[in-house]
Specification:
Blueprint: E1 8-12, E2 15-19, E3 41-48, H1 58-67, E4 78-80, E5 85-87, H2 105-109, E6 110-117, H3 123-142, E7 150-152, H4 153-156, H5 170-192, E8 200-202, H6 211-224, E9 226-229, H7 244-254
Parallel strand pairs: 2-5, 3-6, 3-7, 4-6, 8-9
Antiparallel strand pairs: 1-2, 4-5
Helix pairs in contact: 3-5, 6-7
């Protein structure tokens, strides 16, 4: 079985995003620029967890099904699960996801995130939802939108009970996105204070459940020119999770500071 291969991969705020943009003029997608030429909303969807083939995951399978023309004309900007994230449409073009037609505001002014879950509440469901919240915050931050510009599929089409697994605790999800957004804004503001010259300081680096994630962030900070890490959260145990002290040490030493 030929799995989908990304044309590019990028990392934003610790989230790895694989790009496989559907080409303009494709039978799967004509060129459809966003109305007014800008993103005005972020729309949250749930799509069901599926039985994935060996060697792949749900997000890749949904992305591949879209590229193979098996999604009945539905097109979204991002699929995300507990381990993977794929971007299929550019952020300056519309998808068909809100069920409000070619000119409806859901399709024509919003970016669509499909968070793949099964509603079980198991660790993978929680991880997929958390990663979806991070992606939503990334998109809100990039396009200068506040958290009230993030809405549900049901917002655009009342007959659709979507995102079905997140709707019962939508306020909790919004709070999670809001927290991520605040972290990003704090980092931006702290960097802006230097005027782009001299040392850069990040207010909060983040919390990680794997040491390699913390180490990866260190490399990103160094590449971006950050000289100090003011704060990092995290806990550590025998399972290999990073303790606050351990993570702080990793970060401080890698940017040349003594513990």
């Amino acid at each position: 079985m030929a799995f989908l291969k990304p044309d590019a991969t990028r990392t934003e705020h610790g989230l790895v995003i694989k790009e496989k943009i559907i080409k303009d003029g494709s039978t799967l997608k004509p060129n459809r620029p966003l109305k007014n030429g800008k993103v005005e909303w972020i729309t949250i969807h749930n799509t069901d967890d599926i039985r994935e083939a060996a060697g792949t995951n749900d997000a890749e399978q949904y992305a591949r099904a879209t590229h193979n023309g098996n999604m009945n004309g539905v097109s979204v900007h991002y699929y995300i699960d507990e381990t993977d994230c794929w971007q299929l449409l550019r952020e300056d073009e519309m998808g068909y996801h809100a069920a409000d037609g070619k000119t409806g505001p859901g399709n024509s002014t919003s970016l669509a995130i499909e968070i793949i879950m099964d509603g079980s509440g198991k660790y993978y469901d929680k991880e997929a939802e958390d990663r979806g919240a991070l992606l939503a915050a990334i998109l809100l931050h990039r396009h200068g939108l506040t958290v009230d510009k993030m809405v549900t599929h049901k917002h655009w089409y009342g007959k659709k009970n979507c995102p079905v697994y997140i709707l019962p605790h939508w306020s909790v999800f919004v709070a999670k996105v809001s927290n991520y957004l605040k972290m990003m804004e704090q980092t931006t503001n702290a960097t802006a204070e230097t005027g782009g010259k001299g040392a850069k300081y990040i207010v909060q680096a983040g919390a990680f459940n794997k040491k390699e994630y913390a180490e990866a962030l260190v490399q990103k900070l160094k590449s971006a020119g950050f000289d100090a890490v003011v704060r990092i959260n995290g806990d550590v145990d025998a399972d290999g999770k990073v303790t606050a002290a351990d993570a702080r040490s990793v970060l401080r030493k890698s940017v040349g500071l003594e513990e």
